[in-house]
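chain below, 253 aa
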Amino acid sequence: MRAHIVLAHPEPASYNAHLAATAQRVLAEQGWTVTVSDLYAMGFDPCEAARHFVHPNDPNRFDAQSEQRHASANHTLPNHVADEIARLDQSDLVILQYPMWWHMPPAILKGWFDRVFAYGEIYTSRMRFENGRFKGKRAMLSVTVGTSEATYAYNGRSGDIDLMLWPVNFNLAYVGFDVVKPFVAYGVESGIRYSDPETIEARLRDIVVDWSRALQTIGERPNVPFNRMAEWGEDGRIISTAPSYSPFMRHQP
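prediction:
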């Protein structure tokens, strides 16, 4: 079995890097082959732009989808993008490890989606969801947040964590992954501290234990459900007989 970890944190000694290293160690101990893309260490450019396409379809006007499709068809995607795609192709499990910044992933991870999930190569109108390139593979988020689990519960002050993570999970489902229930590390206090140092240290140690256990039983971890192509009508809206899994995709009252 092969796993690939995508780490999005600028500090090599960060807690996110520690969780990524923990995942690498625990999975390797179970016989997995594990690779890691440390996006900041790689200097990954998150900005899709004309400069990335050496043989453009239209040198006069840049359109990201058109250039991605052209490069996909001609096998001229940038090497570092093609390398990331190859790592995903080779993996049975993909883990995205990142901190929640302003209720979203760091910009470098959003840019990773923008560039690596290239139109033509990774998805088309016919190649998505259960027909996606990565069907049969699993992907999960491992996210750190600064406050307690209660603040990220339904109607919590920090926002409902399930809704906040839904767009990223949806990206994974869109390209065919089976999306595993996320692992959320609560109370990872950094610049702003709410607790005394001893409490924080104990909490961080407990999170590592929980994360290790989650990885040791990753095959038993439930998936996040998403609709399939047949459950949308010709107008692109969910049909009345289909299940509705999220407030973002629901039946009209």
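The longest helix spans residues 197-216. The radius of gyration is 19 Å.
thats it, cya
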